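Subject: for your reference before the review

Hello V.,

The reviewers asked for a structural picture of the protein, and I figured it would be easier to keep everything in one thread rather than splitting it across files. Below is the amino acid sequence we used in the manuscript, unchanged from the supplementary table.
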Amino acid sequence: MRLPKFLPCVVSTVAVSLLSSTLFGADEGLAIPLIDGEPTLADFAGMTPNSALARSMIRVENFIQRQPDDGDAATQRTEVYVGYDQERLYAIYLAFDTSPDLIRANLSSRENIEGDDSVGLTINTFNDQRTAFAFRTTAMGIQWDARWTEGSSFRGGFDTTLEAVWDSEGELTGQGYMARMAIPLRSLRFPDSEEQLWRIQFTRDIPRLSEMSYWPAYSIDIEGRLNQTAMLRGIHDVSPGNNSQIIPFLFARDVDALDRGAVGGPRFDTTTEQDVGLDAKFVFNDAMVLDLTLNPDFSQVESDEPQVTVNERFEVQFPERRPFFIENADFFSTTSTLVFTRRIVDPEGGLRFTGRSGNYGFGAIMINDEAPGLNRAAGDPLRGEKANIGILRGFRDISNQSRVGFLVSDRELGDGYNRVASVDGRFKLNDNWITEMQFTGTESEPLADGESTTGYQRNIQVNRVGRTLNTHSHFVDTSTDFRTELGFQRRYSRSDTTGIHNRVALTFYPEAFNINSWSTTVMDFYLNDTKGTRIYHSLAPQFDLNFDTTGFGFQYSDYTEILRPQDFPGVVSNTRYNYDNWRVSFYDITLESIELKASYQTGKTLNLVPAFGSLPTVEDTNRVTADLIWRPIDRLRIANTYFYTEVETSSGGSKVFSNEILRSNWNYQFTRELSLRFIAQYEQTEAGPLTRLENEENLNFDVLLRYVINPWSAFYVGYNSNQSNFDIVEMEGERELVTTNDLRRDGNQFFVKFSYLFRR
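And here is what came back from the structure prediction:
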């Protein structure tokens, strides 16, 4: 892999910044005892420690609310009993409840615990206040685990692909519920030292009250989570050992799919495939991890949640769902999204190395992608070619949860390449103020003969986090030739623009009228091109009102947009468009069996898909979105999503187009190990004469039977079918696709997959 020419400059810049040591304030904390035996729920029968082993564990109580009433004592009493032996860390939760019949406890799959009562703990094993392991469980013993990264924008800080192997159980009682966690030390990472100095936090979630409580207190008035944890002392002479995992898997699939690039025109092809693959994890020196994947298969990964993509001027970002790419993704997450792994479509194999040593962290990815060379004509020089990808990340933690680092990436395909190098920093100024900055340079050479180009991006933001006042100011300056083939650039960070995004929010917590909080927010966004022309501006004031389990939101948005000749075919000079709309939103989680979120938007929009030869126009629009989760029984969860968008002419109300998406996801849990998932998704676009869109219809079915012993030992049987409104016709000796009014199958897949974890 060739590295960018400017890498030495980048590295030297970082080196100048790596100056200070991490310092933390000492506190009394929690002294955890070494216990003689393995505690069970039977040791706490009657919701009290009734054995010598139970009484030898240290007790934690006096939880404090973070929401809805930050700083108040928890409304329900919680006791946690904690201890360890040379193999495991134990936590027994006694979750008392004055209304035990209202506790929400459902039999569900691993990680799927939202909406249920739960308890948990967060452990910062390196005592650096930056990364931590998080574990939660319910009254049914359902597991949830994740990595927490302080200040990370990746999935709100939580990486739920941890998939640690640990034990849990739960039991409902007449006084509330009990829950037990037994976490093997080999499932954690921590320094090799005689005595471990960790930081810990316990939590309890009561959805029916919208109550989150913690020990120690975790206040919304202070930025950061791990800086509000308690010191955990007392663990001596332990080691995670050599925690290696080998996960071979076997899969077979039968695919019947429409080949749109076949010789002579589209046709159906049937393929049968049997193959093997391997995922592996090797731990070195307790804190360094090598992950390997060979011939990866993601057949069991759930399809993307629907998003509206019709009439969108810019690319819509779909989140990564593949486990190999999600795990440890926070290592490569920066203010500007320079690593967006959805760009790696069909990897043949790859490795990832991540780790920490003292205040230093590092990560590297080497992987290839077969997708660019697939489905190319026989004479295409890129036929069968793979894109080779390398990513290098390094950072240093400095005082007060601050960090400086660098990231370098290289993607090469044929004779072309795209190289990116950046330096970044996160600086916590005090309990409330944070600034982040990133400076990036790129070098690109096209596939065909041509000159290489270079570009840059400057990215600076300043944030305030607090109980009442929250602010966000973000400045991004991007040059014309800035390219990131592995990244994702949003509207405000695309090439040839300078953007400023400001958000100010005021939140108040009245003690009357059963109102938990109300807030007012103003968002103001400016975007100029590099010549100084204002090409976009939006102003959006918003008001939100929240009760215990119900909330309302109101937002008005005003837009000014300028299309330049380079933005849209047929535009001969800068053309201004003004439009505005209103949105009202609602949510309710009062009932255990039903959760509802809905919004309605009406007003004006810019029609970016006019008929061929026509220019964009401002038209009337209405949009409805709804999410409904229904649990008719404790084993069945039905999640429904609905989108409806329509655009009509401002004069006369003639339909321009409408788009409708309906998705229903059914999960039935037979046991904790065995479950059945069924997904049906329907999408329809109806086009009028004033748009270039065509009538489209699509219906997809996805069925998956899962038997999961642990996160890595599992058996899957799946079937997928897709139908579209098309037909294949013969025209002058060639096959062509034509649009019809009927749905026809355009592909289906049946697969079987088995994986098994070998661990030592």
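For the response letter, the relevant points are probably these. The CA atoms of residues 238 and 317 lie 43 Å apart. Confidence is low (pLDDT under 50) at residues 1-27.

Happy to draft the paragraph if you're swamped.

O.
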